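Supplementary notes for students who missed Thursday's class. We covered one full example, reproduced here. Read the sequence, then the structure, then the short commentary at the end.
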Amino acid sequence: MDISLIVPCYNEGPYLEDNLQALYNLLSFLKMDFEMIIIDDKSINDTFARARNFAEGKGNAQLLSHGVNRGRGYTVTEGIKNAKGKIVGFIDIDLEIASHNIIPLILKVLEGYDVTVGKRIYKMKGDLRWFLSKGYVYLVKFVCKTPFDDTETGLKFFNREKILPILDEIEDPHWFWDTEILARAYYHGLKTAEVPVLYVRGSPSYTTVKFSSDTFYYFKKLLRFSKVANQYKRQRG
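Structure (token representation):
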């Protein structure tokens, strides 16, 4: 198997089936052996039914579901561990980062990179999300001493063999997973690359981001992770 694409889903909107089809069409166009692993993280709307309608009859589209909500990080980890592809990645199904951006990240892994990340270029700068994102970037660089310009983007691809051992070290099953996986991969010496991708804000009706509580959550998690970062820095001399 060449490529495994993981699609975590939670309370998605009416765009779900069209976006899943867009991803499927793109992967088919690449003429590589692929699978899609769609995982519903205990949605409370019709997300699972919509995903089931899409996956029905597609042998290379697998649908999994959780009995309880486990978190986005847990969901992606589960997908990577179940994947069969040599290259494995995930994308947020709202496609605020368009599906075609998958291609350069896959090519980077084929070039020999172990971790490739989409670096969001905002179509509209100056809004609250842009401001918080930039502030978080500076905090991560200061605390973790990592080079990444965007840890939180919902588009990442990995050499599955190289990333599997890192997964067992991850402590956070929720949104901080993105920062943690990149930081730990960097500390372990994995070869990483960031690829610019255009970010276009979608409808706020379906966002799961809660700015006040999420900002506090990220700050608390980053503060706690600073101890881990310091341990790595001491080990590296």
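Commentary. Residues 3-235 form a domain with the Spore Coat Polysaccharide Biosynthesis Protein SpsA; Chain A fold (CATH 3.90.550.10). The longest strand covers residues 115-122. If anything here is unclear, bring it to office hours.
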